[in-house]
Amino acid sequence: MGEEGQGFRCLLHGLNPERVMIAAEAVGIGRQALARAVTYAKERIVFGRPIGQNQGIQHPLAENWMELEAAWLMVLRAAALYDAGEPCGAEANAAKYLAAEAAFKACERAVMTLGGMGYAAEYGVERLFREVLINRIAPVSPELIKCFIAERVLGLPKSY
User: Fold this and answer.
1) What is the model's pTM?
2) HSE of 90, CA atoms in CB hemisphere, 13 A
3) Beta bridge partners of 46
4) Model pLDDT for residues 56-88, shown as the tens digit of each residue
5) Residues 6 or more apart from 7 whose CB is under 8 A from it?
6) Alpha-carbon distance 122 to 145, whole Å?
7) What is the pLDDT of residues 102-122, one digit of tens each?
8) Cβ pair 100, 23 in contact under 8 A
9) Could you tell me the sign of the dihedral formed by the alpha carbons of 43, 48, 49, 51, in that order?
10) CA-to-CA distance for 10 and 28, rounded, in angstroms?
């Protein structure tokens, strides 16, 4: 179990893989939402051309892809540190935060890309948008992650 008096530290270390797993799940949800939005943008024809030909549709989707890929790299870094037995609290928290935020934005953009059909169950983006909320709030809120990074990484005084 670890050294005497180090139980809480062991407990916190054991929560790191949970954060990494939640982050990986969030990236997957975000990628699925993005894929559905891209498919719709290619297939939906308005004024004789696909809506995905418009930069107003393209640019937010491109941003979603970049944010999801960056979050995925942090997930991989946190997982690699954990697997190596190295301290990874900052990386696990950052991965969870970045992935949840990127996935949320991708799901929101998917709903917006589909417009009114974003609410239609047949496209499934409304379900992804609903499901991605858990990645933002569990197992730790974005605000507590920011407190952790501020205190443990940046060395700022405790704020709560």
Assistant:
1) 0.93
2) 9
3) 49
4) 999 999 999 999 999 999 999 999 999 999 999
5) 1
6) 35
7) 999 999 999 999 999 999 999
8) yes
9) negative
10) 29
